[in-house]
């Protein structure tokens, strides 16, 4: 695939909450942090360059969270891109705490979520977060209370739109009785389709679906994935992303990387159009059960 084709606009667009249209190939900023999603990156200049290159390539949706670093990912985004392009949407999340590398603990209490939103606003240099996601339901805090807190913050003008992550359809339905939900972010790929029914529900209700770990299942696809990739003069990663884009019109993949080369390869998947039989063959690959 030639470099002149590299632009996220070729993936088409998707609309968040009937308010904001973004290109349908975004960027996930978790991997910009240090090992274990902890601390700053080893090469700060390289991380900043990746963010700037993503915007140059037409990426106008960047996903992050206060727990990535913690705080480091949001700080890098602001350092690289503020003042932000007028069409750039930054989606962040709250509901996790980080005691150490590769360690995640729940905290979706109202007090923590309020502090998390205030912290994200400060680090990102924003007066309002366009898309704020509850990172995950907290087993010891009422889900409804967590969502009600985000609804209150929306009414206060600190959040423009509310979203969810790592949820079931029941969670989505309960949340929608409290506040409009514009997107759902769950683990998903062509070979990891545990949340197929949530993708279908989102499509039926005009809710954007953001797959995390969109490339992780590629390692089990083997020969089929490689054959499809070779037929398109593409990489297996590009085929995996193209499959997601074809899966649903509300799909918004956010592949993350700390490499400009890999970023350009990922964005180039926007122009890959696979055949129906190729799509179906990949969909028939045994599914992977993955863990975060």
What's this, in brief?
This protein is an alpha/beta fold and 292 residues long. It has 10 helices and 11 strands.
Give a written overview of the molecule.
This protein has 292 residues and is an alpha/beta fold. The chain is built from 10 helices and 11 strands. The strands form 3 sheets. It has a 7-stranded parallel β-sheet with strand order 3-4-5-8-9-10-11, with helices on one face. Strands 1-2 form a two-stranded antiparallel ribbon. Strands 6-7 form a two-stranded antiparallel sheet. Helix 2 (72-81) links the parallel strand 4 (61-63) and strand 5. It is globular, with a radius of gyration of 18 Å. The two termini are 32 Å apart. The mean pLDDT is 93.
């Amino acid at each position: 695939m030639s470099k002149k084709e590299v632009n996220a606009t070729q993936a088409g667009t998707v609309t968040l909450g009937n308010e904001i249209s973004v290109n349908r190939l975004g960027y996930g900023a978790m991997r910009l942090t240090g090992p274990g999603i902890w601390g700053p990156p080893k090469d700060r200049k390289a991380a900043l360059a990746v963010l700037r290159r993503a915007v140059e390539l037409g990426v106008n949706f960047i996903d992050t969270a206060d727990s990535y670093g913690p705080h480091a990912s949001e700080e890098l985004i602001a350092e690289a891109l503020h003042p932000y392009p007028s069409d750039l949407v930054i989606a962040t999340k709250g509901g996790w705490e980080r005691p150490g590398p590769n360690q995640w603990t729940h905290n979706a209490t109202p007090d923590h979520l309020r502090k998390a939103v205030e912290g994200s606003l400060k680090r990102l240099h924003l007066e309002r977060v366009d898309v704020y996601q509850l990172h995950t339901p907290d087993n010891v805090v009422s889900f409804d209370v967590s969502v009600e807190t985000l609804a209150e913050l929306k009414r206060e003008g600190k959040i423009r739109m509310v979203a969810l992550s790592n949820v079931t359809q029941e969670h989505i339905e309960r949340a929608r009785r409290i506040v409009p939900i514009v997107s759902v972010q769950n683990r998903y790929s062509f070979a990891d389709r545990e949340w197929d029914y949530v993708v279908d529900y989102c499509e039926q209700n005009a809710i954007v679906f953001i797959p995390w770990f969109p490339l992780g299942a590629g390692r089990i696809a083997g020969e089929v994935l490689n054959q499809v990739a070779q037929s398109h003069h593409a990489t297996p990663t590009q085929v995996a992303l193209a499959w997601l884009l074809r899966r649903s019109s509300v799909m918004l993949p956010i592949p993350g990387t700390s490499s400009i080369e890999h970023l350009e390869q990922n964005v180039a998947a926007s122009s890959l159009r696979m055949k129906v039989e190729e799509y179906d063959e990949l969909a028939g690959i045994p599914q992977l059960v993955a863990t975060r």
